[in-house]
Amino acid sequence: MERKVYTVSELTASIKAALEEHFPMFWVEGEISNLRMPGSGHAYFTLKDEGAQISAVLFRGRGRRVRFELEDGMQVMAFGGLDLYAARGQYQLVVEMMEPKGLGALQLAFEQLKRKLEAEGLFDDGRKRPLPAYPRVIGIVTSPTGAAIRDMLNIIGRRFGDLQILITPVRVQGDEAPGEIVQALAHLQTIVELDVIIVGRGGGSIEDLWAFNDERVARALVACRVPVISAVGHETDFTIADFVADLRAPTPSGAAELVVREKLAVIATLVDLYARLKQAIAAEVEARRERVDYLLRRRVLTDPSRGLRDLHRRLDDLDGRLKQAIGAHVSTQGERVRSLLRRRVLTEPTRALRDLHRRLEELRGRLRLGLRANQRHASHRLALATSALRSRDPRAAVESAHTLLSQLRGRLASSAAHQAKTSRARFAEAVGRLESLSPLAVLSRGYGLTRLASGEVVRSATQVMVGDPLEILLHRGALGARVTEVRERDERHQV
Questions:
Q1: What secondary structure does DSSP assign to 79-121, as a single string?
Q2: How many domains does one find in the chain?
Q3: Are residues 317 and 418 in the same domain?
């Protein structure tokens, strides 16, 4: 018999063919050890059990499909085929896909990333920021076609319709979704006026929500310069985004309710602040008056000196100047509020605004009456004190009283000036808050309000037809227009 002699290459090729023929593709389970991941992105490791071991490789392209991170000691199930590395005469397992044994791959990846970010302190309450009390510009990152965006816009429009909403449309599931979400967040950071961001989508399976468990998305949320609300899925759904965001909302609708307050509630707060300011001023004035009365009762002088008469005139002068200054300030600010309320606005003035106007007028009148009453009361008491002083003659106390009252004069003048300044500042702050809530602030930024010939505000393209006349209200003046085209929907625009 003729001997068959193989070359090394022929033998290796035959063995390789036999391995590929008898072991095309298969599943094998074992423990990962000797894991190496060089800069190429490939993963080299040994798969072993109690009796044997085999070298394995997971190439970078296939590794991208593995959701979890490989670790030494991890029990896995690998799917692949055998390959012979001819240069070394070694065979190895080429892995096509891999699953963890026991815990699901997605759940394992979730737990691994959660532990990693938590160890970095990204879940700490200390780094979470409070939401702005009165946001003016709200950014929303979500799908432009889902129910989530419709629900959020409806709630925001109903609660406080004068806000600016910036919608950055993205895909919220699939392999491309994490990258789009990261880019959308980066774009919103360039808008200086931005106050808060809502990131979210409606409910779905763990695979549907997986984009919000991506490490890139989590770190982009942490890097945002304004507070971020995570509103992903339903109340029972939790994602990594929920843990790193400044606030988690149970649903997208819940996020809209958390970030926007009711308009009437805001107006009620302003009215309450004004009432509290008025009460504080009245209490301070009363306390000062009682102090003066007490000091006047402490000493009874028989013959008021010239200094006392000068003090009397000075007190009258200060009282008149204080009354004039407060009256002028109240009149100026009242006229400012009336002018603001008389101007044309986006919507018809609400009952709350009219009540606030009447309340301001009432408070101004009461304040003037109170000042006049206080002046008459103080003059009456001073007259009584003067009469009592003339009935007796304790000469020794004149000089002491003169010194004391001189001190009181300075303190009263300083206190009156400080109180007037504080009152003006608080009143200006209240007026500023009221102006910030005015729809005119929106018009002043270049927006317009479109109304039908009947006066009804146009909120949707479905309200008009081609040829309908329209009126467009601007910050200054108005324009007449006519509809030439109706586009009912344009998903690319930003609200």
A1: EEEEEEETTTTEEEEEEEEEEESSS-HHHHHHHHHHHHHHHTT
A2: 4
A3: yes
Q: What is the pLDDT of residue 232?
A: 92
- 42 phi/psi in degrees, rounded to 5: -75, 155
Within 8 A by CB and 6+ apart from 410, the residues are none
What pLDDT digit, counting tens, does each position of 231-264 carry?
Answer: 998 888 889 999 999 999 999 999 999 988 766 6
What's the token pair of residue 256? 């809209």
Give the pLDDT confidence score for residue 117 in this predicted structure. Answer: 93
Q: Per DSSP, what are the bridge partners of residue 81?
A: 94
Residue 67 pLDDT grade (very low, low, confident, very high; cuts 50, 70, 90):
confident
What is the rounded (10 degree) CA torsion for 314, 317, 318, 323?
160
Sign of the alpha-carbon torsion through 45, 50, 54, 59 = negative
Tell me if residue 35 falls in helix, strand or coil. strand
Residue 284 is assigned to a structural domain of this protein: no
Q: What's the whole-number average pLDDT of the chain?
A: 81
User: Phi/psi of residue 489, each to 5°?
Assistant: -155, 135
> Is 435 in contact with 339 (CB distance < 8 Å)?
no
Instruction: Reply yes or no on whether the pLDDT at 443 is more than 80.
Output: no
**Pair 85, 118 in one domain:** no
Which of residues 85, 102, 119 is at a domain's end?
Answer: 102
Q: Give the Cα separation of 337 and 324 in Å (integer).
A: 20
pLDDT (tens digit, 9 = 90+) per residue, 389-440? 665 555 555 666 677 777 777 777 777 677 778 777 877 777 777 666 666 6
Q: Are residues 117 and 85 in the same domain?
A: no
| DSSP character at residue 248 | E
Task: Please state, in angstroms and rounded to a whole number, the distance separating the CA atoms of residues 75 and 122.
Answer: 29
Are 421 and 492 contained in the same domain?
no
Claim to verify: residue 89 and residue 132 sit in the same structural domain = no
Whether residue 2 is contained in a domain is answered as no
Domain that holds residue 53: 8-102
Predicted structure pTM score = 0.45
- Considering the domain architecture, whether residues 324 and 413 belong to the same structural domain is answered as yes
Q: Are strands 26-36 and 75-85 parallel, antiparallel or unpaired?
A: antiparallel
Helices (H), 4-43: 8-22
Q: Which residues pair with 470 in a beta bridge?
A: 452, 481
28 in a structural domain: yes
